[in-house]
Amino acid sequence: MNKLKLHLCLVLMLYVGVHKSMGADKMRSDTLPKISNLIDSLILSEKLDWSVRLVSNFKQQQFRLSNEDSKLIYRPNNPFGVGFGVANQKMVIDVLFNIKGDSEEVTDKFAAEGAIIINRNMFGFTLENVHGYNVTSKQTDEQEFRDDISVFSLGLEYLRILSDNNITVRGMKAGISDQRKTILSYGVGGFMIVKDLRADASIIPEADREFFNEQARIYETSSFGGGVLAGVSSYFNLPSHFFATVFVASGLGLEYKYLKSEGGNYVVSNPWIFKTDLFGSLGYNRKKFYVHFTFGTDWYLSNIDFQNQLFLSVTKSKFIVGFNLENINKKKKSN
Length: 335
Hints:
disordered N terminus; 14 strands; 11% helix; 3 helices; globular; mainly beta
């Protein structure tokens, strides 16, 4: 419990330090607004141009358990999905549903993600709840499906945009181009990650037990962490109504990790967690509609002691067709 308190205090200190450093010289117009003003800014403002979108996606939350000589990869089946979303200059929210095939080895999953910008403050979230993983052994080349393995993850991000360029969420992720020129933006902030793994027995297949120690034969993990994050984004205005975006961010933080294994229950002594985000997109935008393709991946690497490592990655790509509703909040002029 003392280790838990220490790690959480260190995480809190990281966040406080980031927010203090970014908030020291803020102008009044850049500060976070009141709740009523926030609702007006995100939803009710007459300056917002709305769109509805149909989304097809590929998304795979996989993780890897490894030591110096051996590796197991856990991938969910049926990674494709369809859904819908809404977007404006300040936010984008997509809700996606998994497509299940006829196979008996079906993964059940739910995913949601979104992002908003409030003045120069960018917030993002990803939510994943996955049940059922296909386990691939790099030692034996064998595969087996484990329907008892479940992973829940929630990721939150915050970036304070430090550059003077006017960047919007829909320009980066929603698929609608607002810019007339190529721009570069950068920011610093923080991230938080919550992960939870559950299984009925050790997640290591019987044929691979000899390659891993008892502490790696885990059947339950709980972790919470956070840290500092820095990112750079570029927007490229291309000919013939095309545009492209690139976003790269890297983070370093602290994480509390509690594991249950055949070798006993323990709190991981190494609290460090490393994070990397990569995102790219290509879009085509017209007045009434837009088409957008995106690809991104989020990586989290952490040491779990006893020469073992856990690596979590969320890889995603989307094909989006959106229809512009323009300014639905604008009041009509009376005669």
